[in-house]
Structure formats: C-alpha cells, structure tokens
Amino acid sequence: MKDSIQPRLYSCYRCRNLVSCHDDIISKSFQASNGRAFLFSHAMNIIVGHKEDRQMITGLHTVADVYCSDCGELLGWKYERAYEESQKYKEGKFVLEKFKIVKENW
C-alpha cells in the first residue's frame, strides 16, 4: 500500500487545533508586533473578533483579531478593509503570527 501524501498544515501551538494549510500562504514576509507572520488566503477553526480600525505599518486598515476556536488563543488578525488602494489585496485574508502556529505533516 502506498503512503498517501498528506497536506502540510499549521495548527495552534497551544492545543494543536488545525488552523490553516501551507498551500494557502500568500506571503511569509509580514511583520507582527511579536515578530514574523504569514499572510494566508484562508483559515479554519478560528473565531473572528470585533472589527476595528488600526493604523498598521502599511496604513489604516479595518481588522478583526482571530482566535483558536478550541482554546481561545489569539493567533493573529483578519484584514476586513484596506483604505489604501495598493493594500486592497489583503482584504478578506488572514495573518497568523509564526510563533503562534506549528507545522503538521511535514
């Protein structure tokens, strides 16, 4: 029997709840307050918090913090709206802080 190829995933570092797929990474060059972060096109098993306007490095954005749906750990944020035209590609995307996620199936 052949080994089936499993997708490379990321999970919450605290409880190992799956939160995203490696194939959904758009960029690995994002900066969060505590270090590097990844921009994902999709996230799963998360809770999206309240929207608020935040001044970020790249300008004003409407964002919502995202939490692990199992343990409630703050993992990053979701871009709801970008006010600068050059930042519109971020809308609807998720930023997960690198130190808050761990690799699965690597």
Secondary-structure blueprint of this entry?
Blueprint: E1 9-12, E2 18-21, E3 25-32, E4 35-40, E5 46-56, E6 59-68, E7 74-82, E8 94-97, E9 101-104
Antiparallel strand pairs: 1-2, 1-9, 3-4, 4-8, 5-6, 6-7, 7-8
According to DSSP, the number of beta strands is 9
The largest beta-sheet arranges its strands as 3-4-8-7-6-5
- H/E topology pattern: EEEEEEEEE
Instruction: Give the % helix.
Output: under 10%
3D structure, described in words:
By secondary structure, the chain is an all-beta fold. Helix content is 0%, strand content 57%. It has no helices and 9 strands. Strands 3-4-8-7-6-5 form a 6-stranded antiparallel β-sheet, with no helix packed on it. β1 and β2 (18-21) form a beta hairpin. Residues 8-105 form the Yippee domain. Belongs to the yippee family. This is Protein yippee-like. Pfam families: Yippee-Mis18. Keywords: Metal-binding, Zinc.
Summary of the model, kept short:
It is built from no helices and nine strands.
